[in-house]
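RESIDUES AND SHAPES:
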Amino acid sequence: MNEYRDPSLPVELRVEDLLRRMTVAEKAALMFHPSTSPSGGDLTQADALAAAEFYVGNLGINHFNVLGGKDSLVVAEWHNTLQEIAEGTRLGIPVTLSSDPRHGFRSNPFTGQALGILSHWPETTGMAAIGDVVSVRAYGDTMRQELRAMGVRVLLGPMADIFSEPRWSRGSGTFGEDPERVAALTVAFIEGLRGGKYMGAHSVSAVVKHFPGAGPQLKGDDAHDPRYPDQVYPGGMQDLHLMPFRRALAAGASQVMTYYGKPVGTSWDEVGFAFNGPVVRDILRRQLRFNGVVLTDWNLLEAEQIGGITFGPNGWGLEHLDSKERAAIAIDVGVDQFGGDRNPELIEELVDSGRISEARIDQSARRLLAEKFRLGVFEHRRVDLKNARSICGSAIFTERGIAAQRASLVLLSVDKAALPLTAGTRVHLDGFAPEDITEELVIADDPATAEAILVKLDAPFEPGRGSLGDFFHGGTLEFPLETVERVTNYAKQAPVYLTVYLERPAVLTPFIGLAAVVIGEFGASNKVLCDALTGRSPITGTLPFDLPSSMADVEASREDVPFDTADPLFHTGFGLQRPVIAPLTTNA
């Protein structure tokens, strides 16, 4: 028996035994982490299988981010298919499957595709609106069990970024604006994913991102897009943005992802963070003494098609260099693995030419192999499809998610006696569906005949300003005039009950005093919202970020400084409490 296959031996010994057997090509294959997908969309089952045979069977790549999959069973079956192919390779190194977050309400092929069969939770800012570490640890624990049941052993998260720039199009994936809350909840989430004090076969490994903190994007425009590569620190807050990462590493995080952005106007090199020696080599590796896996964000070396969009290469500051030299610079500064890219030949050529030594490649291979051994993927190569059916979306996990949706709602303003809505109230719906409304309420098709008007809005954005086909929402936080006028006209006819999906810190100034009730939500079903309005569930959440009074205040603020908008409409931590559940009663 080969020593690397013996689970009774120490991880270090197993790593060295396997490493000495590997060719440069096999080591290079470890250093790529592309996406994979079962059939779906433009990809037929035959095409998906042929791609898997090529990348796993021929090239020997054994880390993949799984995209798509209509349900948990499809993902689990695909995991088992990839493992079967991997078993047929020379050394039989198993696949480690990763995923972006899958438990939210909104889908984005670049940052997380919601999977309907799983439990549904608010976005990460919604977990911050709940605010306690116990809830966030339970969130991580639920995600751990559902992901493991599908064969996913690595989560590309959490985001330890501080939401300091209100316009940032990825802020909803963070734990909010308060650095201390971000740090504490990041640690709690990692603990939930790990499922115990130490990583093991029961765990999902967290990839903490986006080092050194991606919040300070210039004007909030995200560096996914080649138009917006710059990350800025006008307040000199680099160290503050590192703080949640320090806490995550101290809590045992074993993988870190760098971001696309290039820092401008600092002492750091003006190149993307994956290529940035002062950041990765000097801070992460030397100062923080991190010896885990450093993974780049996606497609820094070469381009590919994602969601019908050409994505990459995203090597900001090094666009003039070819993919091979960009790879070499990243490896030089301490990167171990390239997210999204899928060309191990680049590394082979770097070693063959002497540009990168095999000893340096061995350093990365050791880190990557050790993670596989710690996760037990050599001993647990298949998942039980019955578990994928029974665990994913189970009643207990579904109820946990619904409870979190309820607890994340934030009551921002309320007129006296406006809550709860009582039985028999005639309601007109804008953004709600009739099937979402409790039967005790009466639906009025004409707002002129309504006693209450229920309006559901999404936070505003500028179409075309955001990145990648508007999967990322950028630009203004003010609502269009026509939206304000629509709500104003409603308010002339009946009290308005307004809920706003706060994907971004919207300017709600026009609606305060106009609407009878304003509730902020971060991903909640219409039924949960209706239950809150009718008193079936309490409203206890608090804001995870400031809500600005105006766009002028946002534009005058500094991207890297939390709580920097002048005179916010509502401060972080604000929330009117409605803790008492009042059952529906008749108007009489």
Remarks:
- The CA atoms of residues 149 and 384 lie 7 Å apart.
- The chain has a mean pLDDT of 94.
- The longest strand covers residues 205-211.
- The two ends are 80 Å apart (CA to CA).
